[in-house]
TrEMBL record:
It comes from the Bacteria. Residues 1-20 form the signal peptide. This is Uncharacterized protein. Keywords: Signal.
Length: 156
């Protein structure tokens, strides 16, 4: 269970375009702020595998409508529309997953550190499946920080 949760969180983090992830501001907050909490929860769950294709597609259409409004409002170039949607989707998913990780009393920063994510990090490409080595690096980082993995698996 923990491995699946970690893999989902890391994939959501990895989906953030490097330039957008390093920047903040109203433009990057627009779509995320405009999505209702219940829709955010549904998107997060869908990105972690819940629901069927039709329900995920409906959620993505709702998000696309919101991101389109933000693209227009902030003058985002046509060539960046897909990246903006992907960024918004990844950010909503990451926030949901961080919340899920927090429910297990685990800090999400350990994942970022273990895989060297962040503005000054290597930010490895995890657009495909994570390797067993990457997952184990995260698990080991949690163990090294004092987390009892067996108890986490029981709680999950």
């Amino acid at each position: 269970m923990l491995k699946g949760l970690i893999a989902s969180a890391v994939l959501a983090i990895a989906a953030l375009p490097a330039g957008a992830a390093a920047q903040e501001g109203e433009k990057f907050d627009c779509a995320v702020s405009a999505v209702a909490a219940d829709i955010k929860a549904s998107i997060g769950a869908a990105m972690a595998g819940a629901g069927d294709d039709a329900s995920r597609e409906a959620l993505f259409k709702q998000l696309a409508t919101i991101t389109e409004g933000c693209v227009t409002k902030h003058g985002i170039a046509e060539a960046q529309k897909t990246a903006y949607f992907d960024y918004s989707l990844a950010r909503i998913s990451r926030e949901w997953l961080v919340g899920d990780i927090a429910k297990l009393n685990l800090p999400s920063a350990i994942v970022d550190k273990a895989l060297d994510f962040g503005p000054a990090g290597a930010n490895p490409d995890l657009s495909s499946d994570m390797t067993e080595d990457q997952i184990m690096a995260i698990v080991q980082a949690y163990i090294d920080s004092g987390v009892d993995i067996e108890k986490v698996d029981e709680a999950a």
